[in-house]
Each structure stands twice: as structure tokens, then as C-alpha cells.
Design a protein that fits this description.
alpha+beta, single chain, Beta-Lactamase, rod-shaped, five-stranded antiparallel beta sheet, 315 residues, 2 domains, 5 strands
Length: 315
């Protein structure tokens, strides 16, 4: 799978291959001068080739963002200035027009427009260099040899600016997406809270006591009727393990048998002591999903002695 990082690596390697080709052609053009008095150029050429080999084999993940690309761009500007110094000529105008090219190509933020920028800058560079030397610059070989460097600078800087702009736009879009997601999550939390409150109110509307545990035996639902049966608040029961709640008496053992032994109970009469002796009818059943896996336990309890009083919520 071709990733964005791989595309960036490939594009930068193409630009650097073009730069290397220009430098090598200049070295071939100036080979006699290099052999006579500029043998240090060979070391420079080795460095240029070595950087190409390194960037060819470097992992594409390093091209994520523009930080690594910036250092490559800075390195190539230095290599271009060194090449111009050793193989052509460096003067104030070349340095000025290199930075002018960087500025204009960065504003264009387009590789295609950078070629137009480079063409215009090169025309101006040749014209001004010709006027300062007292003749038409097209006859000045050193000026003409610097023309390809300006084209490469334009390509490099425009590509860097284009990718920087894309990254900034992606970060902005990501920030907006995070804000929108945060709003949706907040709205979802409100909806879930409303739904859960409605569900608990439904449980509290039952005349029978309702106790629900998860598959691990922790109590999740304990309605008002169950509070009245056991004479305890739901806060003393909710999120506690069924085995640790002594107030449930024999009901605790009935639920435990269902969880551990899978013994379903239907209308089993149990006597509990919650300050007063009460006879209740208990039924237990597994709560299962569509696949038949257990999600928890539902226990319903109905008083068999005495008149059923209106459930009162403990505060």
C-alpha cells in the first residue's frame, strides 16, 4: 500500500536526483579545472552521492510532517551554494535571487507555478547580471551555469511550502473534527443519561422487587420495591458483589446458585429477616444476548404475607 509518506519520499528523491544530475554535469564540464586545482570537489561529490543513498534507504515514516523535509531542504540549499562556489561563481546577485526564489515559490505553494516563478527569476537574474558586467549576460557562462540551480530551488521550496500548507490544513480539519466529535459525545452522554434514568424509573414502577446483577455478580439494579422488602437503601447494594451483601439473606444464596451452578429458580418461597420476618416468592433467570451468552442475572421478588404497601423511596 502506497502511503502519503512514501509519495513525499519519492518526490523529494526525484528533486534531489535532478540536483545531483546538474552538479555532476557541471563537474564533467569543469573536469579539467577540477583536476588541475580543485581536487577537493571530489570529496564534495562523494558527500552529494552519499546523501542521496542515505535518503533513498531511509524509512518513509520520517517523511511524516515537514520537519525532516525542512532539514533536507536546508541541506540542499547549502549544497547548491557550495556547488556554485566551486563549479561556477557565487556573487551577491546569485544569493539574492536564490532567496527571492524561495520566497516567491513558497508564496505560490504550487510545484507547477514554481516553474513559472523560476523562469521569471532567471530572466531577471540574467538581465541584471549582464548589466553589472557591462555586457549581455547570455554570453557569461558562469551566469548561465547557475540558472539550473534557481529552477531546483524553486521546485524544492514550492514543494516544501505546499506540503506544509497541506499539513496545516489537515491539523485544522482534525481540530474541527475533534470539536465536533466532542459535541457528539456530550450529546450522546446526555441521551444515555436520559435513557438510563428512564429505565430505572421503569424498574421503580414495578410492584415486585427487582434485582439485576452483571455476569460477574455485581448488583446494577435495585428498585424501590426491593428497598422496601429488604429495608435497605439501594446505595448500600448497588455495585457490590452479591456474595458480600448479607442483608439479602437466602436471596443471595439463590442468586449465587444460579451464577455458579446454573440452577434457575421459579417462585421459590423464602423467609427473610429485614427487621421483621417476611415470606417472599423469588424467581431468578439469566439475562442473555442474541448469541445466548450470559450478560447477568434477573431476580424478581414478591411479598407473600401482609398487604403490599405503596413503595416508598429511601432517601
Amino acid at each position: 500500500m502506497i502511503t502519503e509518506n512514501m509519495i513525499r519520499k519519492k518526490a523529494i528523491n526525484y528533486i534531489r536526483a535532478l540536483l545531483t544530475l546538474v552538479i555532476l554535469l557541471l563537474a564533467v564540464y569543469k573536469y579539467e579545472e577540477i583536476l588541475d586545482s580543485k581536487q577537493y570537489v571530489f570529496l564534495y561529490l562523494i558527500v552529494v552521492l552519499a546523501t542521496n543513498v542515505f535518503l533513498w534507504f531511509v524509512n518513509a515514516k520520517h517523511f511524516e510532517g515537514t520537519k525532516f523535509q525542512f532539514w533536507i531542504f536546508l541541506m540542499d540549499i547549502i549544497l547548491i551554494v557550495c556547488a556554485a562556489y566551486m563549479l561556477t561563481s557565487v556573487n551577491f546577485y546569485l544569493t539574492l535571487f536564490i532567496f527571492l526564489t524561495i520566497f516567491m515559490a513558497s508564496l505560490s505553494q504550487s510545484v507547477s507555478l514554481s516553474l513559472l516563478v523560476a523562469f521569471v527569476v532567471n530572466v531577471v537574474y540574467v538581465y541584471i547580471s549582464g548589466n553589472t558586467t557591462g555586457g549581455f549576460a547570455i554570453n557569461d557562462v558562469s551566469v548561465l551555469l547557475n540558472v539550473p540551480f534557481i529552477f531546483i530551488v524553486a521546485l524544492h521550496s514550492s514543494y516544501f511550502a505546499e506540503k506544509s500548507n497541506e499539513d496545516a490544513r489537515d491539523r485544522k480539519n482534525l481540530g474541527k473534527a475533534n470539536v465536533e466529535m466532542g459535541v457528539k459525545i456530550k450529546d450522546t452522554d446526555i441521551e444515555i443519561g436520559t435513557l438510563m434514568n428512564f429505565i430505572f424509573r421503569v424498574y421503580d414502577a414495578f410492584k415486585d422487587g427487582v434485582l439485576v446483577t452483571d455476569k460477574n455478580g455485581y448488583v446494577k439494579v435495585f428498585n424501590i420495591a426491593a428497598e422496601n422488602i429488604f429495608n435497605t437503601r439501594r446505595s448500600n447494594v448497588t455495585n457490590m458483589h452479591i456474595g458480600d451483601i448479607e442483608t439479602l439473606g437466602a436471596v443471595k444464596d439463590t442468586i449465587t446458585k444460579l451464577i455458579t451452578r446454573k440452577e434457575v429458580t421459579v417462585d421459590k418461597e423464602i423467609i427473610i429477616d429485614s427487621g421483621k420476618l417476611k415470606k417472599i416468592s423469588v424467581s431468578t433467570v439469566f439475562i442473555k444476548n442474541k448469541s445466548g451468552d450470559s450478560l447477568g442475572v434477573l431476580c424478581t421478588m414478591r411479598r407473600l404475607t401482609g398487604e403490599l404497601e405503596k413503595p416508598q423511596e429511601f432517601k
